[in-house]
Amino acid sequence: MPKDLVVNLMVAGSRDAAATYAISIAQAFDAHVAGVAFAYEPVLPAIVGGGIPESVIEEQREENEKAAKIAVEQFEAAAKGVKHETRLVPASLAGAADTFGEVARLYDLAIVGQSERDKVGPEELIVEGALFNSGRPVLVVPAEYVGGMRLDRVIVCWNGGRNAARATANAIPFLRRANAVEVVTVGTELAAAAVTSANDLGKHLERHGVNAQVTRIKPGSMRVSAAILDHAAKSGANMIVMGGYGHSRLREFIMGGTTRGVLGTMTVPTLMSH
């Protein structure tokens, strides 16, 4: 049961889908939610033959801090009636990802918004920091998502792996509240062991009070991530649960193709665990 949540507050943009979603989770589970807003250090482009005036740097720093304060104020106004707190944290773009991952270790669930389409934002780095550095589940909310948590149908993506198992376990409080749950395996030629594992997962969830349907889908020419999102759209899913995959290279985590594919084009809130 999630009782302590943390959400990364959007410090740019017209609205904050992740904050709205996090508050709705807190309301549903009578949980506490902490909103973290980063006041980003100025990003200084390389300039040949000269530097940037200190006044310009300071002006950008003040603008970034003002944006973070506005995000905090908006969150506090929206979270009235819910147990909450806020933090304003100065950080660089890269440092924010590390910091949020460390902060999230002390909460049951981290919620992060997807970067707005066609805009460069820090959210992707923060998702990676939370997913690979916190040891906690991360719920990513699409930038275009409107409203709070809805659980008419939840899809659990299952391949029998460790990360999928952790994500499923982390999602059980949500699955218990869902009107319908579907365990989905993706593959053109699924091994008998994979099919058996999916059926066994259905039985495991039933023991937790979750009645789940098991579905096998063939991606055809689509990538696995596209097949998952296509099935989610056609079935009317409100949430996807899946393992977050990646590997480490030079002390940096690189997301796997399916994980990055889902996060890049998602239209449904997605709970991931690594």
Secondary-structure map with pairings?
Blueprint: E1 4-8, H1 17-29, E2 32-40, H2 54-78, E3 84-91, H3 93-104, E4 109-113, H4 123-133, E5 138-141, E6 153-157, H5 162-177, E7 180-186, H6 192-207, E8 212-217, H7 224-235, E9 239-243, E10 246-249, E11 252-255, H8 257-265, E12 270-273
Helix pairs in contact: 3-4, 7-8
Describe this structure in words.
The chain has 274 residues and is of the alpha/beta class. It has two domains: 4-141, 3-Layer(aba) Sandwich (Rossmann fold), CATH 3.40.50.620; 153-268, Rossmann fold (3-Layer(aba) Sandwich), CATH 3.40.50. 42% of the residues lie in helices and 24% in strands. It contains eight helices and twelve strands. The protein has helices at 17-29, 54-78, 93-104, 123-133, 162-177, 192-207, 224-235, 257-265, and strands at residues 4-8, 32-40, 84-91, 109-113, 138-141, 153-157, 180-186, 212-217, 239-243, 246-249, 252-255, 270-273. The strands form two sheets. Strands 3-2-1-4-5-12-9-6-7-8 form a ten-stranded mixed sheet, with helices on both faces. Helix 3 packs parallel to helix 4 and helix 7 crosses helix 8 (257-265). The protein is globular and about 65 Å long. The chain starts with a strand and ends with a strand. The model is unreliable at 247-255 (pLDDT under 50).
Q: What name goes with the CATH superfamily of the largest domain?
A: HUPs
Rg, please? Answer: 20 Å
Alpha carbon gap, first and last residue: 19 Å
CATH topology of the largest domain: Rossmann fold
